[in-house]
Amino acid sequence: MNNIQLTTCYNYTSHENAGTVLYRRPGMIENPRVSLFNRNGILYVQFYVNGKLKQKSLKKPYTKENVKLAKKYIVPEIEKKILLGEVSNTNKTAKNFEFYVDIYLRQKEELKSYQEYYNIVMHQLLPLFKHRNISTIKRGEIKAWVDEKLQTVTPKRVRHILGILSAIFEIAVEYEHIRTNPAKNIKLPHHKPKREMKPFSKEEVAVLLKNAEGQFKNYLAIAFHTGMRPGEIIALTISDIDFDNKIINVNKRIRKGVIDTPKTKNSIRKIPLMDELMPYLKKQIKIAKEKKTFTLFTTKNAKPYHSSDKLHNMWYELLQKCNIKNRVMYNTRHTFATQAIKRGLAIYIVSQILGHKNVQETLTTYAKFINNEHLQIDRKLSIFTDSVTDSSSESAK
Questions:
Q1: Is the dihedral of CA 362, 363, 366, 372 positive or negative?
Q2: CATH says 202-374 is which class?
Q3: Cβ neighbours around 286 below 10 Å, total
Q4: Cα(282)–Cα(306) distance, rounded to whole angstroms?
Q5: pLDDT band (50, 70, 90) for residue 6
Q6: 127-130: which pairs have CB atoms within 8 A and are 24 or more residues apart?
Q7: What is the pTM of this model?
Q8: Helix (H) or strand (E) run with residue 223 in it
Q9: Sign of dihedral through CA atoms 332, 338, 342, 348?
Q10: Cα separation of 79 and 342, whole Å?
């Protein structure tokens, strides 16, 4: 079939139904049932051999001109080969998932976003289906993976990853190694699931820091005492720490292996370096200097972290060790914010330390944790005078 010569033309009749054009030659003993159809803007041919469906991309856009040419030359030739028994029912052998991954990545090599595609494929998709024959991967298990992913990742992010997976399966369809794409048209929710916000208590923070080890202990100390985002912490360099003025300069983050500016303009900020954090920072700087790196936190191979996701295994192992219920690591940021507010730190100061756009954002995020803080004020506080006791009441005596 791959060596069809486009020279012979046969008479035929046509019938259009729901976008599919059927071509039949009258008076034949067997009807080959050859049809053309549109799949994602590409012209496909479809036919049955001994009752079994075969589909093949003609690798041309689905246009009136291409349909006309296929109708004139290709369809009759396929019909001829079917009736002469030259088209076999034997399917080409499907290969392992990584075969199609390799083709997909080669197609993306020239794109600026290649590294992002590569990381998603290698770190998220390949571990799921490595060494699996692509024909054995079912839609149900992909849907189950999607549902699990949605517990921690936004639908937008899952949709992006699923699109890449679908493109890999589509290559197998093009090769005629599978008939349908199991990752196609999987429905996703449009709402954004809220990340669980459950700050740790002072006692839990103490237990976590006590049981953490090595540089991860120092990482957590920074997270709990500054409220910095994970990507901001792993991007810290030695020069960002100003011990003389007790300041941490936050001006970058690491995301998907790329160092760029923080999440928002307001995220570029200076954070006060608390005395409690000093010992942890000094230990981490010592580790960095021993590794001869400028970045504070690096892998065992002294390379910068690709993303904070690499810390998740250590995080969940630590929670289990401390017998603390699983919570996302981002709760270190929420813990700092709520504890700082409870300690009496002004909300606008907390907002600036966190790098929020404005105080309203901070209030909206943490209002439910500070509902009763107003009841903790000193009852001797005078709202209208500088002294605790009103002078008029003194003179009345």
A1: positive
A2: mainly alpha
A3: 11
A4: 24
A5: very low
A6: 129/97, 130/96, 130/97, 130/98
A7: 0.51
A8: helix 214-226
A9: positive
A10: 79
Predicted confidence band of residue 206 (pLDDT cuts 50, 70, 90): very high
Q: Encoding tokens for residue 123?
A: 């770190």
Task: Report the C-alpha gap between 198 and 221 in whole angstroms.
Answer: 18
pLDDT tens-digit series, residues 41-80:
999 988 877 667 778 888 889 999 999 999 888 888 888 8
Closest to 77 measured CA to CA, from 41, 113, 47, 107: 47
pLDDT tens string 151-202: 878 888 899 999 999 999 999 998 889 989 999 988 887 655 556 688 999 9
Beta-strand ranges (E) seen in the chain are 13-17, 20-24, 34-39, 42-49, 52-61, 241-242, 247-250, 253-255, 258-260, 269-272
Helix, strand and coil content of the chain, in percent to the nearest 5, comes to: 45, 15, 40
Cα→Cα distances 281→98, 114, 284, 391, Å: 43, 36, 5, 49
* DSSP secondary structure string for all residues of 83-146: HTT-S--PPPPP-BHHHHHHHHHHHHTTSTTHHHHHHHIIIIIHHHHTT-BGGG--HHHHHHHH
pLDDT at 194: 55
Q: CA distances (Å), 43 to each of 40, 73, 75, 279, in order?
A: 9, 14, 12, 66
pLDDT digits (tens, 9 = 90+) for 251-296: 998 887 778 887 678 889 999 999 999 999 999 999 999 999 989 9
- The DSSP 8-state label assigned to residue 237 in this structure reads B
Rounded distance between C-alpha atoms, residue 306 and residue 272, angstroms: 27
